Please model this.
Amino acid sequence: MTDFAEFHDELRATARDVLAGEVGWAQVTRAGWPGLEVPEKFDGAGAGFAEVAVVLRELGRAAARGPYPAVALSVAALNLVEPEPVRDELLRETGAGRVIPILVLDGDFRVEGARLSGSAEFVLDAPSAGCFLLPAPEGLVVADALSVTEQPVVDGTRSFGRVVADEAAVSSVLRFAVPEPLQLLRDRAAVAVACDSLGLSEAMLEATVAYAGIREQFGRKIGSFQAVKHACADMYVQLRVAGKLVEAAVGGGSVEAAMAKSYVCAAAVDIVGKAMQLHGGIGYTWESGVHAFLKRATLNRSLFGSPAMHRRRLSERYRGVWPPAPAGRLS
Model:
């Protein structure tokens, strides 16, 4: 267990170094992140979601751009289908950074023969896609030539697009090897966003504490004021709870995923809001950069399910709708 924790610490430190400057897909590929969950026999690292979660948290801390979160979700989808040459080659190419597959979790698509029709709105990182993966009753549909129209959102660090298939050719249909794959992938996506929100919350608390230690008002550091101390303490408590929920969700099932997504993403908006307030007037300026974290946290709150939706899912356990034992686990 100690060696495992040490490896995560090393991965975290490396990720911070990589994300310290301008980061493009080439840097992400050199760091080996696309291949973290790719099996070793396909030239990947053979790691698990716990390692991917470390990187996702650091991406949130840096408010980093790029399609890595969507690619990691696509790799998770490919790992849920039965082995066959198309899947194996796609895993190999994705791990090497040569292909950027994008998973379309929600949409209205239908497969007729070898043709695909339908559309999906606000697909994360659709403009970066090299190919698309679409879950369907037949399995995981692989398609290349789909139409993508970029859709702007409040968060300038993310890209979304409308994906349209008009009798598009289906490259392949991969059969799922596990029950309820869609729920597993939705849980995985929810926890990934919670990791991002946890990272950006950590960054905002650290920035606020540092600012309170140098900013003076009435001849005193503002960090000495009781109101500022209380606000920072509240942020810290929220952050500690968020960290425990994410830790449980990374290796947990649907219940833990819903708990983490509902609490962590809502708390992140509150934490960044407090950070902006405690930075004073400069916190509301473009130059401070706090606005980028607030917009990202706001989008995270609704991405892959709002807190209210996930709380509603949790409440279904007590009405006998949702079995207490989750159907699967994330890692």
User: Anything to note?
Assistant: The chain has two domains: 2-174, 181-319.
